[in-house]
Amino acid sequence: MTTCFPLPLAALLLAAPPLAAEMTLGSPDLTPGEAIGPEFVFDGFGCSGPNLSPALNWSGAPEGTGSFILTVYDPDAPTGSGFWHWSLFNLPADTVALPRGAGKAADLPAGAVQARNDYSQNAYGGPCPPEGDAPHRYVFTIYAMPQDALPIDETASGAVVGFFAHTGALDSASLTATYGR
Questions:
Q1: pTM surpassing 0.90?
Q2: Among 58, 67, 176, 178, which lies 20 to 30 A Cα-Cα from 32?
Q3: Residue 10 has pLDDT above 60, yes or no
Q4: Which CATH number do you get for residue 114?
């Protein structure tokens, strides 16, 4: 059976502007759905890794992006509320990547702020799930924000940064990797 559109509808469909590019988040260090390497594991809580943040890159931010938020969240942590491993905000709008190890304050773009993670550090905190747990999911998400800066500082928790991200983002993209021990 052939479907025919009325001529005015067909003209509208043909004249419609192309769809905007969707945001994407990638990493040369992480493969979606696969295990996170030992170089990114936390050093503490019974784990002994170098605690490097993985390299990340993103594209497709919408027009009007003033800054970015980056979060790393473990929804499988046995806390009742998940676990914030990294919350980075006020990343300048022209930022499209972070190199491996950028989770240390000295390696961040000017103006970027790291909130307090659930290890009580203002830094990247790698995976370290309880021994014997099924592998946990680590959700890396980049959010395009309309403002240049959030009205919070480095004392904010990951949950507060997440509130701003979830209530005000223009768009977002995620990459999920796993880790178990």
A1: no
A2: 67
A3: no
A4: 3.90.280.10
Helices (H), 16-89: none
Note whether residue 7 is domain-resident.
Answer: no
Domains contained in the chain, number: 1
Q: Reduced to 3 states, what is the DSSP secondary structure of residue 97?
A: strand
Cβ-count burial 149-169 (b if 16+ within 10 Å, e if not): ebebeeebbbebbbebbeeeb
Query: How many whole angstroms separate alpha carbon 10 and alpha carbon 31?
Result: 41
Q: What is the pLDDT of residue 21?
A: 64
- pLDDT interval class at 106 (50, 70, 90): confident
The number of residues making up the chain comes to 181
